[in-house]
Amino acid sequence: MENVGPWLPDVAEAPVGLAVSGGGDSLALAWLAKRWRHHVVAFVVDHALRVESAAEARLTARRLQVMGIDARVLKLAPFPEGRLQERARDARFEALEEACVEAGCLDLLVAHHLHDQDETVWMRQHAGSGPSGLAGMEAVALRGRIRIVRPCLMLPPERLRATLRAAGLAWIEDPSNQNRRFERVRWRQDLSSTQRDHAREWQVAAQVLRCSEDRKLARILAESAVWHSAGWVHLKPDGIKDNTIAALIRLVSGQRYRPSREQVQALVSRGQGTLGGVMMRPAGRFGDGVMLVREERAVEGLVAAKAGVLWDGRWRGAADALPADGMIGALGEGAFQLDARRLRLPVSALRTLPALWRNGQVIGLPDVLEGIGTVPFVWAGGVPVTGERGSMT
Ligand SMILES: Nc1ncnc2c1ncn2[C@@H]1O[C@H](COP(=O)(O)OP(=O)(O)OP(=O)(O)O)[C@@H](O)[C@H]1O
What we know:
With about 400 residues, the protein is of the alpha+beta class. The chain folds into three domains: about 1-190, HUPs (Rossmann fold, 3-Layer(aba) Sandwich), CATH 3.40.50; about 225-295, no CATH class; about 300-380, no CATH class. The chain has eleven helices and 18 strands. It has helices spanning about 25-35, 55-65, 85-105, 115-125, 130-135, 155-165, 185-190, 195-225, 240-255, 260-270, 345-350; strands at about 15-20, 40-45, 70-75, 105-110, 140-145, 145-150, 225-230, 230-235, 275, 280, 290-295, 305, 310, 315, 325-330, 355-360, 360-365, 375-380. The strands form four sheets. A six-stranded mixed β-sheet has the order 3-2-1-4-6-5, sandwiched between helices. Strands 7-8-11-10-9 form a five-stranded antiparallel β-sheet. Strand 16 (about 355-360) and strand 17 form a beta hairpin. Helix 1 packs across helix 6 (about 155-165) and helix 4 crosses helix 7 (about 185-190). The model has no long low-confidence stretch (mean pLDDT about 90). Bound molecules: adenosine-5'-triphosphate. The site of adenosine-5'-triphosphate (ATP) has 17 residues, from helix 1 and strand 2. Its EC number is 6.3.4.19. This is tRNA(Ile)-lysidine synthase.
């Protein structure tokens, strides 16, 4: 576990979180984790997509308790039709992140193993991914307010199952893991050991390349980009390159995914425009180069001002300052009486800041507007612009 640390001390206030589906891999990880530390807490997500899922989640929680592990079942609300696997994964991670924060966990262990990694790399190679994709899943990655840690990434699944058998423990076989409708399942069943070896070679080579590209990107950004606490970036002319723009679009939009290479190239050659929920245009009164600002048309609508709620994937309201009947939404029209010039902000950055609304009126400005804002909002964009990967170090 040293390779994927550093770890907080093993204390009750900061347990390590375990994502346990109830399948063999994650149950084996839970069993091993309990031997490694006293203070762990398991989260079992019930996607509520199959009738048996609630009973399975309860059974898994019981199995974990028998191992001496505190287990909590997180039941997901129904989600819309279409892109089922992707939606389920996103909703699962959101629920897991929320539960980790509540339980005081900084780290969440998931049980992806060597074969999962082979399949990921193989599928990405087929989809024409560059080094960033071919480098596969990271052993350590930041996601929102937690670290996702994959300690089993170098272990074949047989080892995990053998651990459970040796301990005399049972697990659940999810029927969707056999459903050949899903591309991953087909590769899981069909990849030969030679193909898996190829995938591992591509992965290692891509990881080395990705690391060095990440370092270069960090250097260029340090020299040419200025991040402003109101959620926008000024990028000097030397820094205007495809990879910097792609990374900054992801940062400013609060989204987890970068836009495609082709779209970024087209934007860079146009010199201005919108992409991925971000507007890029000449920096004007702020100097040479361009500014990247959240696109007003793309911001999320009003959300109820509940404790810790994330708005627009970018801003989180501080709990005790939010009135129960308030809503969080873009400042938008509420900005028209404010002097953006005096506040030293682009108008578009001002309009896309969060504000507290009630009955169509702004009742609280964000405290990033020094001197006039009173409502504490913290930047909570999901990923850092570089260095999100453990392999950077
Ligand atoms: N319903 C769930 N609840 C909690 N964690 C989950 C859930 N589904 C997946 N995970 C976590 O994400 C990891 C990867 O998910 P994936 O769907 O590939 O695993 P799985 O097929 O459920 O297998 P297993 O539980 O045997 O790892 C799991 O190992 C587990 O750590």
